[in-house]
Amino acid sequence: MGGLFEPDKENKIAVQQIRKMVINTSKGVKNSMLGIARNFETNARELIKNPPKSGRFYRLKVNGQTRLIQASAPGEAPANRTGRLRDNVSRRVAKNEIEFGVENVPYARRLELGDSKVKPRPYLIKAINNESKNSLVILKARIAEALVKK
């Protein structure tokens, strides 16, 4: 006896179907995680990119020209001045875990969490919160799709 359950001729087909369901469910979970991670990234970038912001106005010299810039207020996603923060929002999916954040931007953490001098301007947690209901829908749908595959 090789285990708790030895398939015989009558239930061999059922065992094969169950194995296929397990494989398809794993694929469904992975596909849903990829979609959810992509949605987190897109939402965070949109929060940074899109006005309106309601912080103070200031002047900034860029290439010899003075531009009027509006900053974000505390609690709003950061204003998009150079695009560096927005462009470095990234995601990875590995072993059914989503890694989502910003790399290579030293001020990213300070903006998200705030510190003694700067009040938080969350964009990552807002993106997750914005996508939480949609994420559950995606997960359920992908698993359901995977279970009906033959």
Detailed description of the structure:
The protein contains four helices and four strands. It has one domain (13-148). The strands form two sheets. A two-stranded antiparallel sheet has the order 1-2. Strands 3-4 form a two-stranded antiparallel ribbon. The protein is α+β, with helices and mostly antiparallel strands and 150 residues long. The two termini are 30 Å apart. It has helices spanning 12-49, 84-87, 108-113, 124-148; strands spanning 57-62, 65-70, 89-94, 97-102. Helices cover 49% and strands 16% of the residues.
How large is the radius of gyration?
Answer: 23 Å
Q: What is the H-and-E element order?
A: HEEHEEHH
- What is the total tally of β strands? 4
Low-confidence stretches: none
Q: Quote the distance from N terminus to C terminus.
A: 30 Å
Estimated structural class: alpha+beta
Give the percentage of residues in beta strands: 15-25%
Index terms:
150 residues; alpha+beta; two-stranded antiparallel ribbon; 16% strand; rod-shaped
Chain-wise SSE layout:
Blueprint: H1 12-49, E1 57-62, E2 65-70, H2 84-87, E3 89-94, E4 97-102, H3 108-113, H4 124-148
Antiparallel strand pairs: 1-2, 3-4
In brief:
With 150 residues, the chain is an alpha+beta fold.
